[in-house]
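Newbie here. two chains, one complex. Structure please?
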Amino acid sequence: MKQVRAFGRFWYDFLIGDDWLIAAGVLAALAVTALVAGSGVDAWWVMPLAVLALLAGSLRRGVRESSREHAGATRASGTSGETS
Amino acid sequence: MTRSAFLFLTAFLACGVEMVEALTIVLAVGVTRGWRSTLLGAGAATLALVVLIGALGPAISSVPIDTLRLAVGALLLIFGLQWLRKAILRASGYKPLRDEAAAFERERAEAGEAGPADRRSIDWYSFTVSFKGVFLEGVEVAFIVISFGAAQHNGVATAAAAAAVALVIVLAAGVLVRAPLSRVPENTLKFVVGLLLSTFGTFWAAEGAGVSWPGEDAALLAILGLLLAASLTAVRLLRHERGLRALAPARKGGAA
């Protein structure tokens, strides 16, 4: 069971990585591109715009995550400082 | 020409980065516990990778090119954006930089704590850690080589040549220094590889979804330029924001 979980974890990390929003966003952007291109309109601009928006959104999430971790670490060290 | 040159550079750098990480693990285990089992583990992982590439390569080449470009482009774009995100967060100070010397010391300490190595028979600890390190880093390299090769005419030869050149350079450096390649600017390489993978991913995935790029291959340069400008701007903005955040508690403290 542990090995199955580790195997699943490896593929999740390999294919999805740190932020699932990127994978989901890329798939959604490709669906929109295919729809726009299928309707006969030039669709080359969709992916570059989507990539920029995804990168910005994912970076924002990364910054929030890092700030939360930093605040947690600071609180923990403060608490241990008080108890010692 | 533009595509082949980009492809070679991307495969070379991506393979180089992964190989440096694998080499750090192999060197740490080899130096601490002996070379025989460590090199056997690395060799077995290389064989397993050859089998994987041999099995996946022909299977992939039977898929229609547009479907392949869509799937490969999407995966490369996901990988590329993940690498780019990590590199930007590291460059702006929101994530710690990967330090090969520290990784080497960590691996060496773990290997030292794992009980004494039996130097006459196979030391399974060395074999397993070395196998895992080389295989897991190698899967990423194999994926890049196979997908690049499949999505472009003559791509396999170009990507495989780039991977071979990277392997020779990294191995030669490892044999010469027998220490972690800490002078390799890994974050800068990851930044460049992230940009290149995202560029190819955007280009191929959009083509697979039915897009005709204005200027054809020249669009690769335009996408690369756009992503480079956006990434550098993001690093500057995030560094600035981080500086302001660092000042805020000090100001609060001063006011109190």
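Moderator note: The helical segments of chain B are 2-33, 35-61, 65-91, 100-113, 124-151, 155-177, 186-208, 218-255. The two ends of chain B are 63 Å apart (CA to CA). Thread marked as resolved.
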